[in-house]
Amino acid sequence: MIDIDLRSDTVTLPTQAMRHAMATAELGDDVYGQDPTVNRLEQETAERLGKEAALFVPSGTMANQLAVLAQTSSGHELWAHEACHVVDGEQAGAAVLGRVQTRMFRGDDDGALSPDDLRPWLRDSADPHSPHQTLIAVENTMGYRGGAIYPLSRLEELRLFADSAGMRIHIDGARLWNAAVASGVAIDILARPADTVSVCFSKSLGAPVGSALAGPADTIARARRARKLLGGGMRQAGVIAAGALHALTHHVERLRDDHQRAGRLAELIADGPGIGLDRTPETNMVIARVPGGNAARAAAAICEAGVGCLAWDADRIRFVIHLGVSDDDVQDAAARILAALDPVAERAPRARVAT
């Protein structure tokens, strides 16, 4: 039985105060634009992100795919890091839903894309052999880099490149709140290089459901129409939008606690048997490295010890801190993790701590 669930920040449960806000929310039919709570959430989200408009949607995947549908057409090309969520975690939605080709890039040592990575692949849009190269998608924080913050300077470089190439930029900002709090850079500044940005309420902010897509009013109008096509038109959605509104008011600044607890967990397990840190945590994720392709076996042992985690790949395990995790939970989880790894370490060489 899992007592301390660190698999993801999606496992959070709404607080009692959030439940009360949801139970007392003003309601209307959102498909007709008449749910006042949804309207307030969309307005506040757009304002916080410095965008003209925002659209409330059930999931981050839908938000990302709506960004693609609203800014590309069949036969266009989407550029993205090879491991970002829109490529690696959404069932090839750009191809299935939008008939959009994806060109993938590896990026540099910090996981970010640079104009130097992209420039050699620019094609003449007048050439009938080439697709229209329309949209660049990036992820902040970078899940594939263990919650690392996408450097603002790189985003600004990409903006200049996109402008020169006639392309647009979408930020998958599922954990953009974490990036803003950890970096001390206002979230509208982090969102400014992008034409559209998606944000999630149901991860580290702790709401039970929902994400939003923000951007220019005409783009969001197209996304709203596409949301209905995908079955995402919601009726009295204020029930769940109220949870997201409560999270925006009460759960953003407390992300500092999650980041501090992630750092503490990393310190406690860094010198454990057969384990090392993949990288120093920047936000709320801890990525531990185990040797010899033992991640699945080690993760199973840790879960058996009552600490939920995920085998991230053959050699890495992911732990995610969220509002349901206390300081005591971190101490308890670290002790259980180290105890669970002892028998695994007996059959594998000791891992080196990454620098």
Q: Could you characterize the architecture of this molecule?
A:
- There is one protein chain.
- The chain is α/β, with parallel strands linked by helices and 355 residues long.
- It contains 14 helices and 13 strands.
- The chain has a 7-stranded mixed β-sheet, with helices on both faces. It has a 4-stranded antiparallel β-sheet with strand order 9-10-13-12.
- Helix 2 packs parallel to helix 11 (238-250), helix 3 packs across helix 10 (217-229) and helix 12 packs parallel to helix 14 (327-345).
- The radius of gyration is 21 Å and the shape is globular.
- The chain starts with a strand and ends in a 10-residue tail after the last helix.
- Residues 348-355 have low confidence and may be disordered.
Radius of gyration: 21 Å
Helical segment count = 14
Largest sheet: 7 strands, mixed
- What is the topology, as strand order, of the major beta sheet? 2-8-7-6-5-3-4
Structure class? alpha/beta
Summed over residues and divided by their number, the pLDDT gives a mean of: 93
Beta-strand content bin: 15-25%
N-to-C SSE series? EHHEHEHHEHEHEHHEEHHHEEHEEEH
Shape by Cα distribution: globular
Low-confidence spans: 348-355
Helix content: 40-55%
Distance between the termini: 34 Å
Q: Using DSSP, what is the number of strands?
A: 13
